[in-house]
Write the structure tokens for this entry.
Amino acid sequence: MFRGIDEVDWASMEHAYGSAADVPVLLRGLASPRPQERETALDGMYGAVHHQGDVYDSTLASIPFLFSLAAHGELPDRGGIVELLVSIGGADSGDDSGEHGEEGVGPGEDTEDDNRAMARTAIRAGARVFLDLVADGDAEVRRAVPSALVRFHDEPPRVLTLLRERLADETEESVRLALVESLGLFARLYAEAAAPAVDRLVSLCATPNEPGLQLAALGQLASCAPDRLPADLVPTVIALLHTRSQHFRRSVEPTRTSTDTLIGRLRRLRPADEEGAQLLRTLHQALGARTADRIALIKGQLSSQDTADRCNAVWMSAGLFREWRAAYEEPVALIGEQLRSEEEQLRYAAVSVLEFLFTLAAPAADRLATLVESDPDSWGCGTATLGRPLKALARSGDARAVPALAEVLRHPVVPNETGYTIGHLGPAAAPLAPLLRERLGTVPLDSPETYSRAAPLLYGLGTLRYAAALPEVLRLLHGTPRELRLRDALVKALARALGAFGAGAHEAIPALRELLTGESAAAAADALWSVEADAEAVLPPLLRALGSERDTGGPRVAAEALGRMGAFAAPALPGLRGLAASTEVWERTAAACALWDISGDPEPVLPVFRAAWRQNPYVRGTVTECLVRMGGAGAPVHDLVRTELASPRRHRARSGGHGSDDVLQDERLLGDCRAALDAAS
């Protein structure tokens, strides 16, 4: 297995963490008789030699030894080695795109770096090894090999014949499912030769094939030949799912030794029915924008008597909610019903999904409120983390979260996210303002945690415009030492709170004026304008910030502050016109918004908006907020707004976004789009 390994100059090569001199140890570890050593070695290969999909010279040098290990029939855990080879070969580089280049891979290969191209060539050159493994005695190897053959073997007709033969002979269900997935992959990669693979998938969708195999075939058809799907897809899938669930427990995965490695921990975190989860995930992903079908599937899954089915449905819904726009009241309400389950894993899944839905979680608010009220121990009192059911309830805007949040705030230790969460309750959170003030008064002045503890409380107080907290804000502003960690960030947070207090913060005017020449000058000037509206005092520091170094963020902050001044900021117009030509999209957008708010002239604004809208979906919320203010003057770019409203896909999903507030920001964007059109009518 390791012939010639010591002749390789590993020390002259590199991996993610420097010298690759330790790679021979990792390779030999893959052949260890001890399970933990094998998994630790595989951890190391992924963590260093193939770190986050990267290919180094040491990765290339490892390929022959990995093939040798995979071919060694007496060695356990070779399935993981085959999967590693597939990953090194670029399985995630676009070869599922439905197009097949000259070398049998996805488009764009000529733009990849040399190492990736050489890795793919090396895996293809050694792919004949996979032919000998399709009937291997290890089911995990047989499960990993079909995908490898389809992706890398240079004789597609032979591979297709082999897949069909193996389906007839294979008895292990998990391997049969892998063979079905590979038929679908074959149909996507080799469209010109896909007909036999598609026909076989169609035949697998019918009885007497077992339900799992039928579900797998339907999922693959949805991705490669959706026109061949049955007309009654949803009821068919639900019936198969329920039938499969009744018999699922008869098939148990082989017992694996528990190891304290990354791979071992990931294995323990797998869902109770990982196979079922994968079957439905494949189908949901293939259905994509067919939200009506996907909602019906989720509702069907949530009606199952099997807890694992319902848990899978909840996790499936997460991808649907994050990516696509639709009416989700019914599935969200059903997810709320899962909070009544005695199964902790199911309740955890339901709360996890409801937590990122914000106002869309309202149909589940009754169940969330019941759960919160029945379990005070889960609120997060005196801990570093706010209870997730309580956070989900508050984010939905439900006032029933207020009493529990009040109890959280009465403890000396307050989870940092509490102040931010309170902001979603609007005026209903007013009773919490005195408690926020009290907690702010206990924040130490010279602790490394001063900023992290104060900033969320300041946010909550600012949202509630609770000017009665002015003494506590000034205490921090005057009392924190200049060398305090993150003091500049703290001062900016304090200034924002004072600005939110408005005229109620009149006593802070001297302190804000002192800040007009420091690092936080723009934030202080913005606050001072809100408190005192003295243009003569705030314009000079804002003009200086407008022309400051771009990487400080000063120009954008200044532009936003100048826009809030309206016509009083007219002397800033030349500088804003220059900033509107910035290479940084957020600066351009902020400058354009300010130009409108100050001059009321749409001519220099709308071209910036159109270009920014197309360049970065994340700025669309800012653009649309300004379009609402512009009314009919924004009509020349309302085609963008109408296109957005007509799109079924969330705007951040189109740029690969997956942030915790993507759904919230998308719903806000849709509301602002409608408001912009209304304002122009």
